[in-house]
Automatic annotation (TrEMBL):
Name of the protein: MFS transporter
Stored InterPro entries: MFS (IPR011701), MFS_dom (IPR020846), MFS_trans_sf (IPR036259)
SUPFAM superfamilies membership: MFS general substrate transporter
Pfam families linked to this entry: MFS_1 (PF07690)
Alphabetized PANTHER family for the sequence: CARBOXYLIC ACID TRANSPORTER PROTEIN HOMOLOG
Amino acid sequence: MIEQPKPQQSLSKQLLQIPVLVAALGYLVDMYDLFLFSVVRVPSLKAIGVPDDRLLPDGIMLLNWQMAGMLLGGIFWGILGDKRGRLSVLFGSILIYSLANIANGFVDSLPMYAALRFVAGVGLAGELGAGVTLVTEVLPKQIRGYGTTIVATMGVLGAIMAYFVADLFAWRISYFVGGGLGLMLLVLRMNVFESKIFEVVKERQVKRGDLMMLFNNRERFLKYIQCILVGLPIWFVVGILVTFSPEFGQAMGLTEPVVAGKAVMLTFTGQVFGDIASGLLSQYFKSRKKVIGSFIALSLIFVLIYLLAPMKDLSVFYLVCVFLGVANGYWALFVTIAAELFGTNLRATVATTVPNFVRGAVIPLTSLFVYGKGQVGTLNSALGVGLLTATLAFIALYFMEETFKKDMNYVETD
């Protein structure tokens, strides 16, 4: 057995360790950039000459390039995190992200924009998984949920911050701000220490970061797929319903046009409260599965309200966005359970690839949505995709192992 880090004297000292704070700030910067594009999509595309009738398809194209970068980056950073250490990811990912984000402020063509969103996606892919992996290994099992809740909540605040920065400054300056924040965080990370659990495994020469280990064992493979499916409803809401909220508002016949940036800000304001609530509830009930199941059900309810309720007033639409955000607030638990389900030699690989595969699932989900839009209309197409993601998530969660009391001091074997 691998020796666990010794608990510290007080809850506050355990939760306010430098690795927890740095992981939290890293996810803030991660989410800032990720949702800045949702906020500045329309003005930035118009600024580089994209006509109004191309704003939706070109916006989807750019989002898909970003998600493709996150898919590939998730694999790269995940393997690196298990082979070289969690800190290697925390340094490399933030540097690539920061430089790409600054470059985004200079784009003057659609191909350049797409290329830089791809590179930014590669950089962003390492933040959450490496941070959550480090936090779960540094903190005692009794309070892991509190630590990852802090990380996720700071991340959601980053998305809200993206709205206010984009509201105060031009879209190019907003990208510069994100890149500058990343470079500042890079300096702060000089004081972070590696997980003791990982260091012991590294010294023992255990096989680490072997992606094929996820596929050569049926039980591990099924656990991996379950983790991905449980997160799909979150990114259906974020990647489709919220990102393209102006188009949904138009399809609903709202009296006023929807401002995408405001919809993003309100949704993630709700998610702040959802992440806090889900984290605290999982600690109270000592169960990840029960809380995640409740939030998936709540998310489905508000998806149905969003798409089926006869809304005409813009303020009601924005209120529903807030509740969608609250129901989406199980992102921290979803990534935590992924980290807890696998041994130290595969933990970073799983915790980094799973959320990025969920984000990358926006590519087939948006493709399915666009195809259905031409067949049954915007609202009905979204409804079909939403019901599909919720059904898959419920099935996956039913068969998933409860991990609340699981120790982190173990490894996966061939």
